[in-house]
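It is worth pausing here to work through a concrete case rather than discussing structure prediction in the abstract. The textbook approach is simple: state the sequence, then state the predicted structure, then interpret. We follow exactly that order.
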Amino acid sequence: MDVMPHGWKVFDPHTPVLTYRYSFGPGTANALAVGGQGGLVIVSPPCRIATGVFDDLSQYGSVRALVASNAFHYLGVPEWKRRFPDAAVFAPAQSISRVERQTKLQGVRPVAEAMAVTGPHLELVDMPHYKTGEVLVRIKPERGLVWYVTDVIMNLSELPTHPLIKGLFRLSRSALGSSSTTLPPYSWSRTRRR
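Step two, the predicted structure:
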């Protein structure tokens, strides 16, 4: 996989599909840049980044949309919205009020309305039973099907070192490698067994 000068990893240069690993304080997350209808859609926009991180994407088109993938992946949205003021902002329906409150941005739209920006090769799937919202991204490049998930499925090569996050992982029995975390069903789901 090619790596851009400021850290974007190029999974598919034609669609395009790029990922970027960033730190948000006690942990790390992965952003996604993917070609949509007439420009890029940025999912979980990275926060506190160098100007070059924005510039690396310019060869793939303008940024048309920013997506907070759930109620907690909003940190980079204000920074990206300042840089790309014409970009629409989307979030899962359940998380819109929190994203607007935390980012101080108005007019955040549900991902169900993003079809005009995503086009036929990109689908934003709003998972309906999560209190905090959750978006799964399905991309259909020429070489097959690609899924981008945020907090539903994790694939870790090492456990976080921050004591709070490490404790949360221990409580949820999360482990190294591909696994489904036990946290979302118990803490984020709107429907619980009694």
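Step three, interpretation. DSSP finds six helices and 13 strands in the chain. The chain has two domains: 2-150, 152-194.
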